[in-house]
Design brief:
single chain; 367 residues; Aspartate Aminotransferase, domain 1; Aspartate Aminotransferase, domain 2; four-stranded antiparallel beta sheet; 13 helices
């Protein structure tokens, strides 16, 4: 809407897209790989891209092979394929409160019995999961453990170890969704859950998925899954029945881009810009709304999760803030149950620093 500042969508800043690099990669595809880029391909994805992803995964501490990888139309499709492969009607799947809205939608479409456990500044409260497991048989756990959506929090090292041990003990699957892990504002890196499991010899209990949407460009629709051996065939069959394979041209484009050695500098640029925007929004919120809201300082990703200090309906308030010219996402939609109406999610990725300041002023005037 004209004049409205959006802190709502989880959309990367298009101003940061590597126009030059993507242009070079496109020209390279047309000049060197034209036929394959416009032809049908393998359901699992191009061999070249999967080979390159082995190296990218290695940088994240994940040891894998091209045979374990399946290219998807973004990590959104990865979640859909995985839940269709894993969930039978009535199967219990556990999420954290709050969690990614689309994951809740996919679980609902597959008729899962969704149960939730709480979270805090250290991520999912795994002790609550352990208590649930003593009375309930579950099929799996879904979470965004690093710079979560919507919470922005990161699961601590001790809780990662605890979660992986519980998966071993109670024989459930962990779906690790990692679209934001590369966008860290510090040099601290927690091990992925898949790395933790691999070091313990229980990698068959974890499925890892990630995407180029947040670190390159979302319009490419290129993501990937690292699959345990026992899931590979079933997920590939579902993928084939869904759309045969991910887009051949964009797979080729990403593959060509990766040969340019521009991805890591691009990620560094994104980290630097998002960190500055995050700090600016945090400062403005503290200055203008500190008596009203509280939040944990994000250490990466694209989101700041806030809560009013008193009982408040953030969903109803949205109509008032819209009239003032600013929007956000009410927090209650990120809960499968026990919805907290006084919570809300801000995204700082697309707004300029001036817009962030003006947005906070508008929020203040709506109270």
């Amino acid at each position: 809407m004209p004049g409205v500042i959006s802190l709502a969508g989880g959309i990367p800043s298009s101003e940061l897209f590597d126009r030059e690099g993507l242009s070079i990669a496109t020209q390279k595809v047309v000049a060197e790989n034209f036929n394959d880029a416009f032809q049908y391909g393998l359901t699992e994805g191009t061999v070249e891209l999967r080979q390159q992803l082995v190296g990218l995964c290695q940088e994240r501490g994940i040891t894998t092979s091209p045979e374990q990888l399946l290219i998807t139309s973004g990590s959104q499709q990865a979640l859909d394929l995985l839940m269709r492969a894993l969930v039978n009607p009535g199967d219990v799947f556990v999420v954290e409160r709050p969690t990614y809205l689309a994951a809740l939608q996919i679980l609902s479409l597959n008729e899962a019995d969704v149960k939730s456990v709480g979270s805090d500044e250290h991520g999912m409260i795994v002790d609550e999961l352990e208590a649930l497991l003593k009375t309930t048989r579950i099929k799996g756990v879904y979470l965004v453990p690093t710079f979560g959506n919507p919470s922005g929090t990161t699961l601590s090292a001790s809780r990662r170890e605890q979660l992986v041990k519980l998966a071993e003990q109670y024989h459930f699957v962990i779906v690790e969704d990692d679209p934001y892990g590369a966008i860290s504002f510090t040099e601290t890196r927690e091990k992925t859950l898949l790395q933790v499991a691999t070091e313990r010899g229980s990698q068959e209990n974890v499925v890892y998925t990630s995407t180029f949407s947040k670190i390159l460009a979302p319009g490419l629709r290129v993501g990937w899954i690292v699959l345990p051996e026992w899931m590979k065939q079933k997920v590939a069959i579902i993928k084939q029945a869904t759309d045969l394979h991910a887009n051949s041209f964009t797979q080729s484009l990403v593959s060509a881009y990766l040969t340019l050695d521009r991805l890591n500098p691009q990620i560094e640029l994104i980290r630097e810009v998002y960190k500055k925007k995050c700090l600016s929004l945090s400062t403005f919120l503290h200055q203008e709304l500190d008596e009203h809201i509280t939040f944990n300082q994000p250490q990466g990703g694209m989101f700041l999760w806030a809560s009013f200090r008193y009982e408040f309906d953030a969903t109803r308030w949205l109509q008032q803030t819209l009239e003032k010219g600013v929007v956000y996402v009410p927090g209650e939609f990120f809960f499968s149950d026990h919805a907290d109406k006084k919570t809300l999610r801000f995204s700082y990725a697309t707004a300029t620093e001036e817009q962030l300041y003006e947005a906070v002023q508008r929020l203040k005037s709506a109270l």
